[in-house]
UniProtKB/TrEMBL annotation:
PANTHER family: AMINO ACID IMPORT ATP-BINDING PROTEIN, PHOSPHONATES IMPORT ATP-BINDING PROTEIN PHNC. Residues 4-248 form the ABC transporter domain. The keyword Kinase does not apply. This is Phosphonate ABC transporter ATP-binding protein. SUPFAM superfamilies: P-loop containing nucleoside triphosphate hydrolases (SSF52540). SMART domains: AAA. Gene3D superfamilies: P-loop containing nucleotide triphosphate hydrolases (3.40.50.300). Signal peptide: none annotated. It comes from Alkalimonas delamerensis.
């Protein structure tokens, strides 16, 4: 089933920078789509437009056949709550426990006054612990988030995003701050939630070796335009140079 459709999406920031030009693509349920491209090619902008963190300048975005770009207010908030997101810097609340951080993911479905008082239901707490188990961190539930390693914090961020019961998880360079082996560990958990929970993943990555290991499909951006859409294994030397430039050299992460 088609989950997401982007039609002629363009984005120009208020300072005049056009970050996306007429971007067209669709995403099927269950895909693990990776977006690649040089720094500044528009990868983060595209993810932020998908969940409407940044309004698009023109074009249409359909999520489950409903036009997100025509929504506002409560309707938009409801649809957005099905699109989770994780970031390069994890964005946890450092002095709160891991469990509290995961519960914060339920904000979209919890009245603000309840969440401020920490009044989550027993069912929500059980759910949070279950998600922590999925990312292998149930034993850290009552530890302060800033006592965890970077890779562990990113796994907490994944569990927090799962509390939204997302159909799609957007991952904006989720391993860019991590060392190679920790990167694989985090990518494996993203793969697990994609394959076992059926959450569609759209992820920005820098290293092609990670792309080849985890992506089911790849989109490459260059100067805000799509220059490649296809299988990760079809990115040969010629495509590599088209995407990253003639002088680029592939660097591997093992
Ligand atoms: N808030 C903003 N205001 C103005 N210009 C921006 C803003 N955010 C990004 N840009 C510009 O938009 C273009 C695309 O940036 P974007 O961050 O989407 O690229 P990226 O491929 O994710 O890069 P990186 O890999 O370095 O994160 C760049 O020219 C960038 O300078």
């Amino acid at each position: 089933m088609q989950l997401l459709q982007c039609n002629n999406l363009s984005k120009t920031y208020p300072n005049g920078t056009q970050a996306l030009h007429d971007v067209n693509f669709t995403v099927e349920e269950g895909e693990f789509l990776v977006i690649i491209g040089l720094s500044g090619s528009g990868k983060s902008t595209l993810l932020r437009c998908i969940n409407q963190l940044h309004p698009v300048s023109s074009g249409e975005l359909y999520f489950e056949q409903q036009q997100l770009t025509a929504m506002a207010g409560k309707e938009l908030r409801q649809q957005r709550s099905r699109i989770g997101m994780i970031f390069q810097q994890f964005n946890l609340i450092p002095r709160k426990t891991v469990l509290t951080n995961v519960l914060a993911g339920a904000l979209a479905v919890t009245p603000v006054w309840k969440s401020l008082l920490g009044l989550y239901s027993e069912a929500q707490k059980k759910q949070a612990l279950d998600y922590l188990k999925i990312v292998g961190l149930e034993h850290k539930a009552y530890v302060r988030a800033d006592n965890l390693s970077g890779g562990q914090q990113q796994r907490v961020a994944i569990a927090r995003a799962l509390m939204q019961n997302p159909k799609i998880l957007l991952a904006d360079e989720p391993v860019a701050s991590l060392d190679p082996s920790t990167s694989h560990s985090v990518m494996k958990y993203l793969q697990k939630i994609n394959q076992e929970l059926g959450v569609t993943v759209i992820c920005n990555l820098h290293f092609l070796s990670l792309v080849r290991t985890y992506a089911s499909r790849v989109i490459a951006l260059k100067g805000g335009r799509i220059v490649y859409q296809g299988a990760p294994d079809d990115i040969d030397e010629q495509w590599f140079k088209t995407i990253y430039g003639e002088d680029a050299v592939e660097v591997s992460i093992n």
